[in-house]
Amino acid sequence: MPRGRYSLHDPHDHTPLGEEHFQCAPGPSGWRYVSQVTTPSGDHHGSVDLALDDLGRPIRLELHAGGWQVRGAALDGVTWVRTDPTGTHATEGNVRAHAFTGTSPAFLVATARLLRLTPSAAGTRVRLVAFTDPVLAPRTVDQSWALLKREAHATDNGPLTVDEYQVTALDTGEQHSVHLAGDVVLAAPGIELEDLKSPPSVFTDPDDHADDRHDDRSDDRSDD
């Protein structure tokens, strides 16, 4: 069960945004990630609780930030309820998207888990609902993900497989790299892994769901 700490910063000017103290683990029916987010001064800022099924779909999402709350899941695309800090106003949303995203490193692992790419220069298109700080405002984004390479690195605990992804924002064409090892983000814009108490978990892919994954996204693949 990986447990550790990420530092978060603005990917453009590197302004510190805080830290995310996390733990995550695969289970018999998927993967779960929980974390507590702090400000640069160390004050509590929010939390993340994300659970995926064995196909990588979000079966439960709960976000807290600055008093705002979002609860969501994969239902007719993705569906969520966003509540204001007073708790008196709740807004429901639904988009024909594949999953959620946001500032937490959990979402990078979740998207990679959903797509299950093999090394190729071809990109796979994915539509996500992003919840943006500081008020968890929802925004639909289209991205293209390509797994550029997969390399094994020797460590004291045995070989560590690192995947390098190229992520393209389809509205602007902006590209960036994401490096993952199992369910841990090693490097990504705005994210640095500062501490890791145990090795990343190794995902296994159930072969009997391979056709389901292909069918679910057969209309979304495109070469970029």
Protein described:
Helix content is 8%, strand content 55%. By secondary structure, it is mainly β. The chain has a 15-stranded mixed sheet, with helices on one face. Strand 11 (137-153) and strand 12 (160-169) form a beta hairpin. The longest helix is centred in the middle third of the chain and has 10 residues, at 106-115. Residues 206-224 have a biased composition (Basic and acidic residues). Residues 195-224 are annotated as: Disordered.
Note the main attributes of this structure:
224 residues; mainly beta; 15-stranded mixed beta sheet; 55% strand
Short recap of the structure:
The chain is mainly beta and 224 residues long.
Strand order of the largest sheet: 8-7-6-5-4-3-2-1-15-14-13-12-11-10-9
Instruction: Give the SSE string.
Output: EEEEEEEEEHEEEEEEH
**Approximate helicity band:** under 10%
Poorly predicted parts:
208-224
| Chain-averaged pLDDT | 90
| Shape estimate | globular
Q: What's the number of extended β-strand segments?
A: 15
What does the largest sheet look like? 15 strands, mixed
Count of helical stretches = 2
In what range is the share of β-strand residues? over 45%
First and last CA, distance = 36 Å
Using only CA atoms, what is the Rg?
Answer: 17 Å
Structural class: mainly beta
